[in-house]
Amino acid sequence: MQQQTIAVLVNDYPGVLTRVSTLFGQRAFNIDSITVGGTEEAGLSRMIITTGGDDRQIDQLMKQLNKLIDVISVTNLSANSYVSRELALIKVSASPSQLAELNGIVEPFRAAIVDVGPTSLIVQVTGDTEKIDALLVLLQNYGVLELTRTGSVAMARSIVPATAAATV
Amino acid sequence: MSVEMAEIQKKNSIPPIQFGEEVSGAETLLRCLLLEQVEYIFGYPGGAVLPIYDSLYGSYFKHILTRHEQGAIHAADGYARATGKPGVCIATSGPGATNLVTGIATAQMDSVPLVCITGNVAQSLIGTDAFQEANITGITVPITKHSYFVRDVRDLPRIVKEAFHIATTGRPGPVLIDIPKDVANAIAPFTYPETVDVRGYRASVVPDDEEVQHFVTAIKAAKRPVIMAGGGIIAASADQELLAFAEKARIPVINTFMGLGGFPGVHELSLGMPGMHGNFTANQALLNADCVIGLGVRFDDRITMGRTKEFAPNARIVHVDIDPAELGKNVSTAVTVTGDVKSTLEKAIPLITACESEAWIRQLKDWQEKQPYKYKTDGDTLKPQAVIELLYRSTDGEAIVTTDVGQHQMWTAQYYKFKNARSFISSGGLGTMGFGFPAAIGAQIAHPERITIAVVGDGGFQMTNQELAIVSQYNIPVKVAIVNNQCLGMVRQWQELFYDNRYSQIDLTCSPDFVKLAEAYGVKGLRASTPQEAEAVWAEALAHDGPVVVDFRVAQEENVYPMVAAGNTLDQMELGDD
């Protein structure tokens, strides 16, 4: 069982998300995360869905998704090199006096403290899943009061030499 | 407007359709249906579809007023299966729409083209739990090929055009159009697109030449090949191509339940039906074949028994299907072709040569002779199998036969040798009791010149027998053959075999007197309890110019054999007592 990231280009109509998510339930696939948003073309949305499955299961999932009338295209991003990012907002139990100390922790992650209150502050971080998990481990020493994170947004890398396609 | 469209309107529409004329959404809908060459509509009116029924008043359409929406959709389904044309039904919002659900799921499972039109409350009331409001597009997401909620009357012509295109192309299926009442009442200039452009929908049917070449090469190498022909043969109208291909390649043919009639049941290469209640030879063919050629089949668990690794253990599986998602879904395949079976076989026939299969064919013939379907006759007791044999004999396999679901359905599949495509109409995938009788009405309307028999059980018939009203009202000459064993026979059989004879809730002995019930609706009713009575009564039924209900009182304890019990493999077949 491997985690796979599927990009699904769909019509931006009411009910399309229901059709896609229903298909997952109907065919006994699990959705680990799903993000939906606009695209370069008006009237279309792109769903980034992470799910688990072997090659045969993922092949069947992609074929079933392709059968939906509102689905324009389905791409398994995991089949090639791709860029993936999540966004997380983490509310940490801390006082303003601990700001500098926390800044020292979040800075190497290129994260930012975006809100400071009397007893808590909010850290904003973007990156791949592992990076966000790693920051969370560190922040848990202070006490994580609240966490909200998106699923992945992802995109296939441009067809360029491997050295130029290094993660940025 | 195209020449073809102009001809249609000239022929069918009085007054002629005027493009650009300001008309209501309801009138727009009916004009669109006319331009789609719809002849019959099966439906039931209600508050939310009053504008549509008002436009229907005095119009050119032949509307069949069923007595329940489920009857309407099953009738539309029967019409579609008998003709290959899309069936059309109308229901009102809320309960009217939800009463279509079983019929929509039935059509989806068996890939039947339907266009289901439902009314809904006005958009200003949507989401308020208004009277008779139901989110029918949401309810039916998993059981439709596609569905539309019409928000603007100006979208309606495009939506109807797309709905018919989607329902009938690629792998056929049901499409639902939900029309709020305010849209049905809204006025707009009438237009109708001549072409369809659904960006996300690619219904390609013609297979790639290279795939066909692989298909042919794989088959040529086989010594013990067998074709497993499914509902895709019938959906693609590929029965003649299948016949030509099988004869030229000398390959025996198994017809799945959904494929019955797709290859003549009396042909020397016909092996009949495989699977749970299939015959010995068809199952032995799958167990011993070196190449199984699946044509328009989905390797359903009633054939593989869900034991896909043990299914056809010695064979390379070659699979042709118009739906790419079916390829490799249930069984592992060696060669696949994406395309409809008609196009595939048209390309393959010139390339194929006869396989070295004569020894294999002789072996299969030997099995057929030694292990045919069989049952014990017992003096004056009327056996259900004998009833089906009587129906077959009396119609020479030429009738359209519909069924409900249960023992009678399996006996019909076993003992009626279907010669023609679109002659056997039954709910295969969903297994819908109550389907047979209304489906027969739709089929009979489509083919008034043919004998149409609804073989039903005493259980299933009571789910939709209110439609006796419409065979009476419209004098639709369906012959209803009730295989009446006074119980839920298939449930009884499973309780006998797997639940230690604990017959829980299967007793139907207090059913109505079906002869009197028929007569109450003004329909001729007859009864037979012995083989002799059955012969005489059935002859009377066939001679009667109108609908007839025949109550065949059959032995209650009869079981359907052969049988492969759930969880077993095809080599663990119980042949029944001799």
TrEMBL record, chain A:
EC number: 2.2.1.6
Pathway where this protein functions: Amino-acid biosynthesis; L-valine biosynthesis; L-valine from pyruvate: step 1/4; Amino-acid biosynthesis; L-isoleucine biosynthesis; L-isoleucine from 2-oxobutanoate: step 1/4
Domain of life: Bacteria
Family: Belongs to the acetolactate synthase small subunit family.
Keyword annotations of the record: Amino-acid biosynthesis, Branched-chain amino acid biosynthesis, Transferase
CDD domains: ACT_AHAS
Gene3D superfamilies xrefs: 3.30.70.260, ACT-like. Chain A, domain 2
Function: Catalyzes the conversion of 2 pyruvate molecules into acetolactate in the first common step of the biosynthetic pathway of the branched-amino acids such as leucine, isoleucine, and valine.
InterPro entries linked to this entry: Acetalactate_synth_ssu (IPR004789), Acetolactate_synth/TF_NikR_C (IPR027271), Acetolactate_synth_ssu_C (IPR019455), ACT-like_dom_sf (IPR045865), ACT_dom (IPR002912), AHAS_ACT (IPR039557), AHAS_small-like_ACT (IPR054480)
Domain ACT, first and last residues per copy: 5-79
Pfam families on file: ACT_AHAS_ss (PF22629), ALS_ss_C (PF10369)
Complexes and interactors: Dimer of large and small chains.
Species in which this protein is naturally found: Brevibacillus choshinensis
Full protein name: Acetolactate synthase small subunit
Catalysed reactions, as listed in the record: 2 pyruvate + H(+) = (2S)-2-acetolactate + CO2
Enzyme class name: transferase
Presence of keyword Zinc: no
PANTHER family linked: ACETOLACTATE SYNTHASE SMALL SUBUNIT, ACETOLACTATE SYNTHASE SMALL SUBUNIT 1, CHLOROPLASTIC
From TrEMBL, chain B:
Residues in Thiamine pyrophosphate enzyme N-terminal TPP-binding domain copies: 24-135
Metabolic or biological pathway: Amino-acid biosynthesis; L-valine biosynthesis; L-valine from pyruvate: step 1/4; Amino-acid biosynthesis; L-isoleucine biosynthesis; L-isoleucine from 2-oxobutanoate: step 1/4
Domain Thiamine pyrophosphate enzyme central: 213-347
Alphabetical list of PROSITE patterns matching this protein: TPP_ENZYMES
Segments forming domain Thiamine pyrophosphate enzyme TPP-binding: 404-552
GO function terms (MF aspect): acetolactate synthase activity
Keywords: Amino-acid biosynthesis, Branched-chain amino acid biosynthesis, Magnesium, Metal-binding, Thiamine pyrophosphate, Transferase
UniProt enzyme class: transferase
Cofactor entry: Mg(2+); thiamine diphosphate
CDD domains in UniProt: TPP_AHAS, TPP_PYR_POX_like
One Pfam family here: TPP_enzyme_C
EC number: 2.2.1.6
InterPro entries per UniProt: Acetolactate_synth_lsu, AHAS_TPP, DHS-like_NAD/FAD-binding_dom, THDP-binding, Thiamin_PyroP_enz_cen_dom, Thiamin_PyroP_enz_TPP-bd_dom, TPP-bd_CS, TPP_enz
Cofactor note: Binds 1 Mg(2+) ion per subunit. Binds 1 thiamine pyrophosphate per subunit.
Catalyzed chemical reaction(s): 2 pyruvate + H(+) = (2S)-2-acetolactate + CO2
PANTHER family in alphabetical order: ACETOLACTATE SYNTHASE CATALYTIC SUBUNIT, MITOCHONDRIAL, THIAMINE PYROPHOSPHATE ENZYMES
Family classification: Belongs to the TPP enzyme family.
Database matches in NCBIfam families: acolac_lg (TIGR00118)
Protein name stated in the entry: Acetolactate synthase
